[in-house]
Amino acid sequence: MFLGTYTPKLDVKGRFFLPAKFREELAEGLVVTMQQERCLAIYPKAVFEQKARQALQAPGTVARNRALQRMLAANAADEVPDGQGRLTLPPKLREYASLDTEIAVVGAIDRVEVWDKAAWETYSAEQEDEFADINEEFL
Fold first, then answer.
1. For residue 105, what pLDDT is reported?
2. Dist CA 31 CA 51 (whole Å)
């Protein structure tokens, strides 16, 4: 399970140090892909494969399902952290999420999200009031 918010720096090669708490679960391989709200999602390979199987269960005759399948696969990258725990984010995905040097790495239970730090701060602040309402309904 991925929990917490961290603020490592993205270097000029598009690498950052994964938080130590996340490294073991991601050490065997992971998939980085687009996520809604213009951030990136990092899934352990097995979790991504499960999500892909779920996407394949949706009828391919429905345009929205085909679009989801395409976007999920076409913008995904298999990666393995290096020996120092650094992960390289592909340029296309960095561009999609508007990532520069300042990033936020956010635990989102079954995945890790990577946000532009300022975008995360804005999103998080906007969601604080909504969180109370959602929490009451959900829990």
1. 98
2. 11
DSSP class of 89: P
CA distance 131 to 9: 28
- Are the C-beta atoms of residues 85 and 20 closer than 8 Å to each other? yes
Predicted TM-score of the model (pTM): 0.91
pLDDT < 50 positions in the chain: none
Distance between CA atoms of 46 and 65, rounded to whole angstroms?
A: 21
- Please state, in angstroms and rounded to a whole number, the distance separating the CA atoms of residues 40 and 113: 5
C-alpha–C-alpha distance, residues 20 and 110, integer Å: 16
Please identify which residue in the block is written with the tokens 């009828």.
Answer: 59
